Amino acid sequence: SQFDLESKNDEIIGGEPNVVIAYYDSFEAAELAEAGTELVSPYTNVIANEQIIYGRVTKEVPQGGALPCYTIVEMALIVNALPEDSVEIEDVIECQTPVTASGSIILDTKDLEILNGQDPTIFDVQYYESLANAQSMTSAIASDAPYLYGTTATTLYVGIFNTQTQCYISSRVIDPVTGETNLNFDLIVKEGAEAITPALPYIICDNLDASDGFGIFTLISDENAPTELDAQADALASEILNGQDPSQFILTYHETFENAEDNINALPNTYLNVINPQVIYARVTNELDPLDTEVCFAIVEVILKVEQLPTVALDEEYRLCVDENGVPVEAESGSSSPPVIDTGFDPSLFTFLWTVDGSVLPTETGPSVTALVGGVYEVIITEIATG
Asked: What phi and psi values does residue 321 have, to the nearest 5 degrees?
């Protein structure tokens, strides 16, 4: 750094009259006092951080007298590092539902973020309402009392002061073209978003070939080809949004809370669960201004659950004996005739719909049926509790 060496003259001379000072980079040079070797102010140190120079203090005497008397004093040139100012300060956004148009902050709560690891017992963070005030260290804002702001962004500028070295750094213009500054942040109140946690899990029946607890969930419905699962997805969205306009409050689903918070890796419209049950995260984002990167959002958990289908074990074929008129008769040996096709399910827990060759058997509503005619028998078994 540059030093004004002459600024120390009065301190060294201490009011003594007829005294002059010249500075040198070594004791030997100060002893010799060779003309042209004096250090000239402003002087830039050549040894980093701390350099010793020497001042030759000479008492002038009238011409013709004795040789001038002098002494040599050491002086340390110390360069202290400025406080660190590379941190990008997060804006303060207060999401309100409903909007009251007024927010407040205790600015001291931003100190540790701004210091970014610098010792808060040594470094003092100061806040200002203008860049000029920050640079001149004037009219600092009281940082231990609530500071009010509203729906129009308020920009605050920051200064960092080292109480030990008295070094200070403040907001400055870092891009002369755009006027962008550093060590500043905005305060603003915005309309918030709400997300209501679903009262019940999102349950589907196992809809893949194997009844193993894995199924395809519809998360975002297809308006062009609605299905029963699309209706479930719409009902889930309606519960989460709780009356908020879906054109403004955008609903997305994510596998992790971190992805939801960062608004990345949204799940597709249809999703295959990876465990059963599984927790995913619904994010509701207020996109009143879709170009605004600082938006309000809310996140809730959603439980996905696949109900496994009942396992039905029926024989592929049953034997029915009939007489010459097609009337069922008992078998003389082997399996019984007419055969009983039995699902083995509890009728208090399940309902049954039997068909033969596609025609419904209206009187057969139990877990088994006695086959009196040949054909292809089918049964639809529905669990009462889950549907």
From this structure: -95, 135
Cis peptide before 98 (omega within 30 of 0): yes
User: Given pLDDT bands bounded at 50, 70 and 90, which one contains residue 322?
Assistant: confident
Q: Give the other-Cβ count within 10 Å of 248's Cβ.
A: 13
Asked whether 206 and 306 are in contact (CB, 8 A), the reply is yes
Window from 116-130, 145-159, 200-214, 359-373 with minimum mean pLDDT:
200-214
Cis geometry, peptide bond prior to residue 42 (ω within 30 degrees of 0):
yes
Residues 6 or more apart whose CB falls under 8 angstroms from that of 323 comprise 329
Alpha carbon distance 203, 141 (integer Å): 55
CA distance 29 to 22: 11
- Identify which of 149, 147, 145 has the alpha carbon closest to the alpha carbon of residue 102: 149
Q: What is the DSSP string of 89-147?
A: PPPEEEEESS--S-EEEEGGGGHHHHHTTS-TTTEEEEEESSHHHHHHT-SPPPTTSEE
Distance CA 143, CA 126 (A): 8
Q: Which helix (H) or strand (E) holds 175?
A: strand 173-175
pLDDT at 313: 84
pLDDT tops 80 at residue 106: yes
Q: Is the peptide bond before 347 cis (omega within 30 degrees of 0)?
A: no
Number of Cβ within 10 Å of residue 116's Cβ equals 14
Report the amino acid identity of residue 60: E
